[in-house]
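Sample intake sheet
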Amino acid sequence: MKFDSNLAWKEASAAVAANREVVIALAGVFFLLPGLGMALLFPAPEPTTGMNSKEAAAVIADYYTSILPFLLPLWVFQSAGTLAILTLLTDRSLPTVREAIGDGARGVLAYVLAQVLLGVAVGLIGGTVLAIGSATGLALLTVVGLAVVGLLVIYAGIKTSLVAPVVVVEGERNPVAALKRSWLLTEGNSLRIGLFYLLVGLAFLVVTSVIVAVAGIIAALIGGAQARTIAGAVISSALNALMALYFVAMVAATHRQLAGPSASGVFE
């Protein structure tokens, strides 16, 4: 069937509105608080004047390497939150928040393993493409290789974006089968789904940038640079959590539309 992004957005928005108290609370616990903690405790380094692209890349690489021990458990924690929110949005039995968190925790191993398998596969293919480009010694082929890898990452992300609802709604606990199921569900609609995610993501990015910039200016005028930093971290973390919540709802609506009425949940 042809994917209808307008319908998916309406259903996702309606689902969030219908369950706003519980899903916003979960988004706060699983996305806002961890994001705020990372922003305040491990602020990203800013490139200094005169730093070239290679030096800036090295600084960024060192930063993420240093916080990797915190990022991995955070990723698993937020994965469990994603599945818990999906459970609340799709389970006809109307589970309690505690039950939804429990169901999410039970599916998190399959979901995380699916993401790891995907990352390994994309890494191997992408690494091979880049190695071939570098071996030629031609800058043009290296640039082309980077573009190909970037497109591969985007395409694989779109094709496997329904793994979470496959795990939650369909109860699939085999990570390979979950990846295959998502791949098949998106067949023929990858471009439409990708544009749907892109447009909503860009809209959130623009709104977040404007709000954070304005709030930062106001905070700086009132309390100085430190107040601006704290205000920016709080507001950006809150808006990022809201964006994560809506994307979970969008993925649920997309899955429901492509998988059929059996995945309806609160979208009825």
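Comment: DSSP finds nine helices and no strands in the chain. The two ends are 19 Å apart (CA to CA).
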